Amino acid sequence: MWAHRLSRFNRLAWQPAPATPLLRRGLASHTRWFPQEPAEPLVKTTTIPGPQSKAALEALGRLQDPRAAIFASDFQRSIGNYIADADGNVLLDLYAQISSIPLGYNHPAILEISQSPEMLWALANRPALGVMPPKEWASILEDAFMRVAPKGLDQVFTTMCGSCANELAYKAAFMHFAARKRQESSLTFASPRTLQAYEESCMKNQPPGSPEYVILSFKQAFHGRMFGSLSTTRSKAIHKLDIPAFPWPAVRFPRVQFPLDGYAAENQQEESRSLQEVAQTLDSSPLPVAAVVVEPIQSEGGDNHASPHFFRELRRLTRDRDVLLIVDEVQTGVGATGTFWAHEKWGLDADNAPDVVTFSKKFQAAGFYHTRKLRPEQAYRNFNTWLGDPVRALHAKAIVDTVKRDNLLQLVNDVGGALMTQLEALQAQYPQAMSNLRGQGTFIAFDLPSTDQRNQFLTNMRSLGVNMAGCGDHTVRLRPMLVLQPKHVGIIADRLEAGLKRTFT
């Protein structure tokens, strides 16, 4: 049945294209997953969005605000690394639904598990996981998440989205911090008088039940759009405009220069200044800091990098002050940087691991890893109806299976190295246009001179058959799937050069 369905899908999508072997020795061929993937992009319309996309977005506009939409997608005809739109344009997709597609469009492993008996009961009977988890839930958590749990973290809390993951991680941090403060004061909820004072005051949004604790974040950070996560988001004003926010502190993230090996001394000084500001804020904040939250690479804020030494020192500062460290891997996690978790590159042992690691996007599921100490004192506190989704957990299991079986982390490193070599040559050829090339794995970015030129470049790239996106003020970011192959590198380089010429000449 499965083979028949896949065959039918392939006939609807693409005519078979010749398989292209990987260029590096030791990597298995991945073309068997997408034999119908086109050999190159196909652009049929003079503009993107074309007339059919515009019509679809106009229809959508009667019900929802479609103004942020790039075009209307045709997911039935999208395959592998290529996305199709309503007009029949087929673009090499280096945006991947805001960095959230791990295995390419319509990957057989995802299609297969989507038709499994486990998926059918999960779809038909969505459980309220906190109160009536299915009997299989523990084994699903093990297979989907715990096989790739970050070092030192043995618990997982599942949520609905990346913002939810950070929001609920913040709640866990506050509960842990408050419980520790009560222990230091010999208070306990076992005392009816103590519990009553906390319950009555929290219902008035007042201390001690609603304590005035804060989360420390970094400028240019992006951690989500809900109230707590939004209060730690500092990437763009458009995210925060008109929304009340908690008065939480933010310090500057290091603004390192590229190439890194050309500015080692300057970058070390810049990181030291940032770390000093962290220490001063932790020590002098008028409100107690419960946790520090940081991205391994600030993504929405402009793909801002820092060295492993910076993060090791950040861990030392937080541990010395008994402040939790939350690492936001919503965008960097699940292999894009060449390791499953970007923070693996920091070289931390299990005793110095982050206290919390949040995830979403390429995992398709969302949540956060933590240690048992972050379980609240009472049940029913960090809680909602769904607490995640077995459907997405089953997809996460298939993703982990495929990453491990097909050695996709090695593929990411191999293709990322080849792509960086091509981009370095382009940067040398067009230094007035392209600068500050940086990246890990295929998690790559470079800068253009201005916001307007960056936005025009992205429009030109779509007309050349490559879907890309920006971040920060004038940065272009590449966020391909984990299945990007060496055969795509030449296409990307050729189209990028054409896009630079079209934009800057």
UniProtKB/TrEMBL annotation:
This protein's record includes keyword Transferase: yes
CDD domains the UniProt entry points to: OAT_like (cd00610)
GO MF annotation list: 4-aminobutyrate:2-oxoglutarate transaminase activity; pyridoxal phosphate binding
The keyword Transferase appears for this protein: yes
EC number: 2.6.1.19
UniProt enzyme class: transferase
InterPro entries reported in the protein's UniProt record: 4NH2But_aminotransferase_euk, Aminotrans_3, Aminotrans_3_PPA_site, PyrdxlP-dep_Trfase, PyrdxlP-dep_Trfase_major, PyrdxlP-dep_Trfase_small
GO CC annotation: mitochondrion
UniProtKB keywords: Aminotransferase, Pyridoxal phosphate, Transferase
GO biological process, one term: gamma-aminobutyric acid catabolic process
Reported cofactor(s): pyridoxal 5'-phosphate
Catalytic activity: 4-aminobutanoate + 2-oxoglutarate = succinate semialdehyde + L-glutamate
Pfam families named in the record: Aminotran_3
UniProt similarity note: Belongs to the class-III pyridoxal-phosphate-dependent aminotransferase family.
Stated name of the protein: 4-aminobutyrate aminotransferase
Source organism of the structure: Dimargaris verticillata
